TrEMBL record:
Region (Disordered): 1-33
Name of this chain's protein: Uncharacterized protein
Organism placement in taxonomy: Eukaryota, Ichthyosporea, Ichthyophonida, Sphaeroforma
Coiled coil segments of this chain: 161-257
Keywords assigned: Coiled coil
Keyword rRNA-binding: no
Protein species of origin: Sphaeroforma arctica JP610
Classification via InterPro entries: Sos7 (IPR037475)
GO cellular component: kinetochore
UniProt-listed GO biological process terms: attachment of mitotic spindle microtubules to kinetochore; protein localization to kinetochore
Length: 458
């Protein structure tokens, strides 16, 4: 019974020992793939070395780049497959080891030396496979890093190769187009160029050029003739101008001889006054339009502090926001009659009838202004300062109007006062202006205000 009790255990141990000592056929380790891996690594390293040795900027043929990329991809796929198989073998061996350890824990310690040796051997194999797997994993990682370093240059070279390929294709198309154009016949003046008629066409073109050159010379000769004619015409025009000047001089000498008691100097002054008068008349037409919307102001100046006699006045016209000046004055009625002789000569002529009318209106205007100013001087107190050349008029409401005299000149027998009105604080001359306008109405000078004052712009 004792033998029979031990026999199953012995047979069980033998079976386990047999199984541990002899690996089943489906678990028999295959030849280690390190040899094939080393061959693949050497081929990949050789390709990488060739890539590194080549200049970085030298274009690589597209076929070689594609072949190298395919070879590297195949090697990576092969290594990945071997690595996966090694992982499966490792997992299977670790599973067996765990299973055997579990059996050992269930059955207790065995005294079978062969089983222990088998376990030790299998553990050694497992450790060896782990180490080999780690080494191969590190090699694969190093290869991946190395390939990653060379991937970007390879990609750039590939892009450059594709760009060069496109450029080459475009150049080939252009060459083919040029070849087709060179094969086409050449036409000149709707006539096909051939070896037979090329010389005839060239001779015809040379003849045409000669004709154009002759025509150019003819045109230049005609232009020279026209320029000479223009020069002659200018000289004739200058001669006619000189003859006209001589005739005018003779005419003026005749007029001087016909004038009784009038010297050449007087005639020259009279002509200058006539020209000035025409300028005034031209200016009056422009002044009339400007006086339509103007505001009239009267500046009382040059008051005699003893007799309160008004001997000078100033008329100011305001256009919009800008203060413009329009001035005239008279000292005494006697001086009004004392007109410059040149002016008297101008009035006596038939060409200055309009001037006579303006002078009449002017005298009426002066009379009306003097009368109103004398009346206002009696109503309002006037203060005159000869040192500062200014006069102040205080109106009834207490406001003060101050006037400044700027300059005085004598023109053609009239005393002309150039000045501007500068109101003081709260200054207002509306009452004075109203009185002036009333006197102008009574004098009949307000029918045309411009006719009364436009001559004063001279």
């Amino acid at each position: 019974m004792e033998v029979s009790n031990e026999t199953p255990h012995r047979s069980k141990r033998n079976a386990i020992s047999h199984n541990m000592g002899h690996t089943p056929k489906h678990l028999t380790p295959k030849p280690h793939p390190s040899a094939a891996l080393s061959m693949d690594l050497s081929s990949i390293q050789q390709v990488l070395t060739e890539i590194q040795n080549k200049p970085t900027r030298v274009p690589i043929e597209l076929e070689q780049v594609n072949a190298a990329s395919a070879n590297i991809q195949n090697n990576l796929d092969s290594e990945t497959e071997h690595f996966g198989k090694l992982k499966l073998i490792l997992i299977e061996l670790e599973t067996k080891n765990c299973f055997l350890e579990h059996l050992n824990d269930l059955n207790g310690n065995f005294d079978d030396k062969e089983l222990e040796e088998s376990l030790v051997e299998e553990k050694a194999k497992v450790r060896h496979l782990k180490q080999a797997n780690e080494v191969q994993y590190k090699q694969v990682q190093a290869m991946v890093e190395s390939l990653g370093e060379h991937y970007e240059p390879c990609r750039q070279e590939l892009a450059l190769a594709q760009e060069l390929l496109g450029t080459t294709t475009a150049l080939r198309d252009e060459v083919r187009q040029l070849k087709r154009q060179t094969r086409e016949p050449l036409y000149i003046n709707d006539e096909q160029m051939t070896k037979d008629n090329a010389q005839d066409i060239l001779d015809a073109q040379k003849q045409r050029i000669v004709e154009l050159l002759d025509s150019e010379q003819t045109v230049k000769s005609e232009i020279a003739d026209l320029q000479w004619q223009i020069t002659q015409a200018d000289e004739a025009k200058e001669n006619l101008r000189q003859q006209a000047n001589e005739l005018n001089t003779q005419l003026m000498s005749i007029e001087v001889q016909e004038t009784d008691g009038v010297s050449v100097k007087t005639l020259s002054e009279r002509k200058q006054w006539h020209d000035d008068l025409l300028g005034v008349m031209r200016k009056m037409s422009h002044t009339r339009a400007r006086l339509e919307d103007c505001t009239l102001h009267v500046d009382i100046t040059n008051i005699n502090p003893v007799t309160n006699e008004i001997s000078l006045f100033t008329l100011t016209v305001v256009f919009g926001d800008d203060l413009d000046w329009l001035v005239s004055a008279t000292l005494t009625p006697a001086e009004q009659v004392n007109i410059n002789p040149i002016v008297r000569e101008a009035i006596a002529t038939n060409d200055v009838v309009f001037l006579i009318q303006e002078v009449k209106h002017h005298i009426q205007f002066i009379t009306a202004i003097n009368t109103e100013v004398q009346r206002l001087a009696e109503i309002f107190p006037v203060e005159w300062s000869p040192q500062s050349q200014r006069a102040s008029v205080t109106v009834k409401d207490g406001r003060v109007v101050t006037m400044f005299i700027q300059d005085a000149v004598i023109r053609r027998g009239y005393t002309v006062q150039v000045c501007s009105i500068r109101p003081g604080v709260g200054g207002d001359v509306s009452k004075i202006v109203a009185g002036m306008q009333q006197q102008l109405v009574s004098a009949g000078a307000t029918d045309d205000l411009g006719a009364c004052v436009r001559l004063l712009y001279k």
